[in-house]
Write a structure and sequence with these properties.
With about 140 residues, the chain is mainly α. The chain contains four helices and two strands. It has a two-stranded antiparallel sheet. The longest helix has 25 residues.
Length: about 140
């Protein structure tokens, strides 16, 4: 195996001094793994209304943008986190207490009861899809 030709002095034929040209390449691939990461996605909702001076003259309520749709009302988990939780539990057979321990090792404390609540609520939210699939089958 030849050493890599990174230095400009090595890109010339040592006998003739002529520049070398690319005649092929070797590709090496690494298979890498990244653990799932929790990250906070912050949604900023501006509140708009009249200025303080105009607000005194007229009774105009402030207006705020709607929240993006959420898979579960009042739940801090995104659709991606909920789907990951369900796949880990049901497809990979990873119990919720182990998932809570994994999150804890990463510095994110999510109690097992919270994961259980999210799992149950996700099941209820998916109920119409399950019912429809059962009717089709």
């Amino acid at each position: 195996m030849q050493p890599a030709c990174d230095a400009p002095a090595e890109r010339f034929d040592p006998v003739t001094g002529k520049p070398l040209r690319k005649i092929g390449e070797t590709v090496f691939e690494d298979l890498d793994s990244q653990r799932a990461q929790l990250r906070v996605i912050r949604h900023v909702r501006p509140i708009q209304g009249p200025s303080a001076d105009e607000g005194k003259l007229r009774d105009v309520p402030p207006v705020m943008a709607d929240l993006p749709p959420r898979p579960l009302e009042g739940c801090a988990a995104s659709a991606g986190l909920l789907s990951w939780l369900l796949v880990q539990k049901f497809a990979n057979h990873l119990p919720l207490h182990r998932q809570a321990a994994i999150f804890g090792r990463d510095g994110k404390r999510i109690p097992k009861q919270t994961l259980c609540d999210w799992t149950l609520a996700s099941g209820e939210a998916l109920r119409p899809i399950v019912d429809r699939l059962q009717r089709i089958v």
